[in-house]
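This part of the workshop introduces the protein records we will be handling. A learned vocabulary of local backbone shapes supplies the integers on the structure line. Getting from the letters to the tokens is the skill we practise here. As an example, a complete record with its sequence and its structure tokens follows.
=====
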Amino acid sequence: MNPKKFFSELKRRRVYSVAIAYLVGGWALAQGIAQVLPVFDIPNWVVRLVVLLIVLGFPVALVLSWFFDLTRYGIVRTPDLDTASINIVQSASTPSEVDSGDKSIAVLPFNDLSAAKDHAYFGEGIAEELLGALAKVDGLRVAARRSSFWFKDREAELGEIASKLNVGHVLEGSVRRDGNRVRVTAELIDACDGFTIWSETYEREMHGIFALQDEITRSIVDTLKLKLAISPTPPSRSTDAYDAYLEGLFYSDKNTEPELRKSLEFFEQALEQDPTFSRAWTGIAKAWLWLADAHVPPLEAYSKVRDAAVRALELDDEEAEAHVYLAETKRILDWDLDGAEAEFNRAVAIDPNSTPSNYFIAALYAARGDRDKALTFLRRADKIDPASLWVSNFACELYRYFGLYDEAITAGERALQLDPTFAHYGEPSLAALYREMGRFDDAIALYEKARQFTGRPGFGLAITYARMNRRKEALEALNGAVEGWGYRPGDGIAHVHVTLGEHDDAIRELEYACEQRSSSLHGVGIAPEFVPLRSDKRFKSILRRIGLDPEKVFAATART
């Protein structure tokens, strides 16, 4: 066994803490017994026996501390540090141990203690606001929202959360809303030993919620002895607008059409209350982005994305996420990849630890054939947001495109562990990887599992049947997939036709995808499914039309 890992494991299982507590307590007890028992004429052999039992109990206590832990849920078995089991964060690019000198924190969603249990959105919103403020503090690394919030409603131990998110501190708390009165309890915990190093309870009127967030943030950075570098929240913001915004944010992360449309309603309510609320416009851009393609034709949806992103940036040019969404519209509507790159870089400069900034720029560089840049930003996104199904599934896809199968397997299996149903995402990239590796039965099993929750087959299932020369089943799955979309996804259909060897039909569908501005069209140049078309002049012409250099793209994914 590696000595460094062994001693790190002793610390994670709190064996050191138990040893120190036992020695101090045992010594005090032995001293007390030696002084008190003789007063009652208790024989010395009894005193010696008790002291001996205390000594013999020491190794027993250490063994028990290795296997069990006293937690807020009672005595539970300490989870093994096993990279093969739900290994959310451990990847080739992410360290598995927290550096004791590293100031890092995860902010968990605050529990809703309101009587009606109808303010979960507010608890998440408060946590996100604190997370955003802390992310701007110099010298503090903050785990991304999706990863921190993944642990909501899961009875995970703080040590497990810290290990998986690679952080040294955890902030958790609760909120209770009663009319216009709000009670917030916050607790900062040292993840290494489980001790609370700061806690406070606040009661405020809703109009004081912004000052309260600043107060909590300042208390945390003071406790961690960090430099505070946040801007105070504008005091003029409407609390009604803020409340509506938080509810919109809550629904915008659900990824189903009804919930995304509900988020639009709340963002619009926020703007009715406060027309200068830039982040509400960013929320609208986000909602339309996720409605695009799957639920709304891209030409319609991305026009709305662009309008909302531009309005957000007119109000606040420091809105990193709005730059991301504006970049996507330049890529998709205008095929202006240089303009998109500039907007993405602006977003990264504003917020280098933003998941969307790193995620989308990685996709752009991959599509353009800039392999090293794509992998750099992909690994950054993976490190920032290790418990994100969204990021893990995307990582599996890009690693597959570049022929990095070991990394693709790790990311794909991690995505599957995060959500075995894939109920709120789409198609598991791991299934496509299995297909490419010839594991057709495994691929079909994953696609069928996703189908149970989406209610329709995906294009991946049709492609898999096509690869197996099962033409009838491929066309049946293709028709089912097309029926479930908000528009005719030409590039998805083209995937099936090229696999069936129907190159003319594939080119026709790609031309249609160009007309419709499909958001995934830029990926066809690096997708291995389209390798049979690479010698076709029409295919190269399509790539040039959408802003790609065919030879550069093909070279980036060439197998050596």
Observations:
- The first helix runs from residue 3 to 12.
- The longest strand covers residues 169-178.
- The CA atoms of residues 525 and 531 lie 8 Å apart.
